[in-house]
Design brief:
The protein is of the alpha/beta class and about 525 residues long. It has twelve helices and 24 strands. It has helices spanning about 5-10, 20, 75-80, 140-150, 165-175, 185-190, 215-225, 245-260, 290-300, 300-315, 350-365, 395-405, and strands at about 25-35, 45, 70, 70-75, 85-90, 115, 135, 155-160, 200, 235-245, 270-275, 320-330, 370-375, 385-390, 390-395, 410-420, 430-435, 440-445, 455-460, 465-470, 490-495, 495-500, 500-505, 510-520. It has a ten-stranded mixed beta sheet, covered by helices on one side. An eight-stranded parallel barrel has the order 2-5-8-9-10-11-12-13, surrounded by six helices. A two-stranded antiparallel ribbon has the order 3-4. The chain is globular. It binds alpha-L-arabinofuranose. Alpha-L-arabinofuranose binds near residues 48 and 382.
């Protein structure tokens, strides 16, 4: 029996009052040990033409009774503005390698309807129609760009490598970026250039993106990235990276690319690692063991980053290439979708918020290695920040983590050492710290289901003048927001005290805390 379970099940009841149950946590923040700048793009999102993500989630149409901005769900735009959402990856995922971008331009009424990549998957197989199954292409390049512009986030487009050609791809770049008055495609675009800088070259090319070997894919990558017109703005290319711990894919790609010519490493901006965690239990029905199992799987992200980083260093000694973890999240089995076409739709609980917090903290701690990340997926899908159906809309606990953690964006990550009793490979207390000028942001998770945790933070190299705390917590990890109770789980103020050299606060079981200190 693990230590935490012992406290909970055997001795816990006898050890009341609560303070006696609590395990102490300590954090030492090394204010003078910078790790790297936390790229705001680490807090990016992913939008795929899959189930209810685009149709119902984002796109409601201009004539809809649902409040909208040019057909885009207004409540979603407003919520994303609040967290300063920095980036959106689109149009997939697996869908990207089946997408012809020309289907989604020009007058909407004349756009073709196409069978969606996911049409015969899961619940969609049983549907007779609908936009999730037969994509009307009402949401195409211009609508996606409008969405990005309304929110204020950058676009990141995934090109079709499996069923498209390099020429189609170059023309998409031309459509997006060529100057007004320059080309036929610029005229068809009908707006000022979109200046898309981030381009994914396929998606999961080891699987749904073409079943390539790493060597074969490196050839495709070269073809797609050779002599792409850039219209004065350097393009940033992201090759399809590994599935979880597949070091062979990382080694195979970089070895083949640099064998052809060492300088080709300069074509790579970000290495697109994908990793999902999950358990046999449902999104909402799970037991304590499945809670710990999911969180333990989530923190595997850290060793994935360091292991692939080591391999990348064999071919890129100066580590020019950083990670773009452009799909991550907790993927649960079906059954909690709010509408029958929301393929992979799942209710997000407090447990998922813990996964979000643990993962963002890992990215912050590796700010020198991770340049971009995209949680999968934005709305009505895996690990979503939102659930939306017709005129109903809610923010999940994941959203609140992104809201609390936004204070790290652009900050200088500094080394912090967390200590508390652990649960196997799952740290009892984990987190990240960053500095922006004299403002220290510390975020952390108490993963114990049973014990609260008094935490003492020692500030090495500085003192605090003031401190403010925020906590995200629920009565149980299965708790979630619903259309009936959309604000059941939301951040609240947390009492925190400082003596100057240290800060103290107490975290309830299974909770996420944010502490902001103004330093002297
Ligand atoms: O996010 C759902 C799917 O998971 C994506 O389309 C694919 O890239 C991954 O396998």
């Amino acid at each position: 029996m693990q230590r935490r379970h012992f406290l909970a099940t055997s001795a816990g009841a006898l050890l009341a009052p609560r303070a006696a149950q609590a395990a102490d946590g300590s954090v030492t923040v090394l204010l003078n040990e910078p790790v790297g700048t936390i790229s705001p793009l680490i807090h990016g999102h992913f939008v795929e033409h899959l189930g209810g993500v685009v149709y119902d989630g984002i796109w409601v149409g201009e004539g809809s009774k649902v409040p909208n901005v040019a057909g885009l769900r207004k409540a979603l735009i407003d919520a994303l503005k609040k967290i300063q959402a920095p980036l959106f990856r689109w149009p997939g995922g697996c869908f990207a390698d089946s997408y012809n971008w020309r289907d989604g331009i020009g007058p909407r009424a004349q756009r073709p309807k196409r069978t969606n990549f996911w049409a015969s998957n899961g619940m969609l197989a049983k549907q007779s129609g609908g936009p999730a199954k037969y994509d009307p292409n009402e949401f195409g390049t211009n609508e996606f760009m409008r969405f990005c512009q309304e929110v204020g986030g950058a676009p990141y487009i995934a090109a079709n490598v499996r069923s498209g050609s390099p020429r189609e791809y170059y023309e998409w770049v031309e459509y997006c970026n060529s100057p007004v008055g320059s080309t036929t495609l610029a005229a068809q675009r009908g707006t000022s250039p979109f200046n898309v800088q981030y381009w994914g070259i396929g998606n999961e090319s080891w699987g749904c993106g073409g079943d390539f070997s790493a060597e074969e894919y490196s050839v495709e990558f070269r073809k797609f990235t050779s002599w792409v017109p850039n219209y004065g703005m350097p393009l940033r290319f992201l090759p399809a990276g590994p599935n979880g711990g597949d070091l062979k894919w990382s080694r195979g790609f970089f070895e083949a690319l640099t064998r052809k010519s060492p300088g080709l490493i300069n074509r790579v901006w970000g290495w697109a690692l994908h990793y999902y965690c999950g358990t046999a239990g449902g999104p909402v029905e799970f037991n304590d063991a499945e809670y710990y199992e999911l969180l333990t799987k989530a923190v595997r992200m850290e060793s994935l980053i360091t292991d692939h980083w080591t391999v990348m260093g064999e071919y890129d000694r100066n580590h020019r290439v950083k990670f773009a973890v452009d799909e991550w999240g907790a993927w649960h089995k079906a059954g909690s979708e709010v509408a029958p076409h929301h393929l992979f739709g799942q209710i997000g609980t407090m447990r998922d918020a813990m996964v979000a917090a643990l993962t963002l903290d890992i990215f912050h701690r590796h700010a020198d290695k991770v340049a971009m990340a995209n949680v999968a997926q934005l709305v009505n899908c895996i690990h979503s920040l939102f659930i939306a159906h017709e005129d109903k809309f809610l923010a999940t606990p994941n959203y609140h983590v992104f809201d609390m953690y936004k204070e790290h964006k652009g900050g200088q990550a500094v080394r912090a050492v967390f200590a508390a009793p652990s649960q196997g490979k799952l740290p009892g207390l984990d987190g990240s710290a960053s500095l922006t000028g004299k403002r220290l942001v510390l975020t952390c998770t108490n993963s114990s289901l049973s014990a609260g945790m008094p935490v003492e933070v020692k500030l090495a190299g500085g003192t605090a003048r003031s401190v403010a705390g925020t906590i995200l917590h629920a009565v149980k990890p299965q708790a979630h927001n619903s259309f009936a109770e959309p604000d059941l789980i939301a951040p609240k103020a947390l009492k925190a005290e400082t003596s100057g050299a240290s800060v103290r606060f107490e975290m309830p079981p299974s909770s996420v805390a944010r502490i902001i200190c103004e330093l002297a």
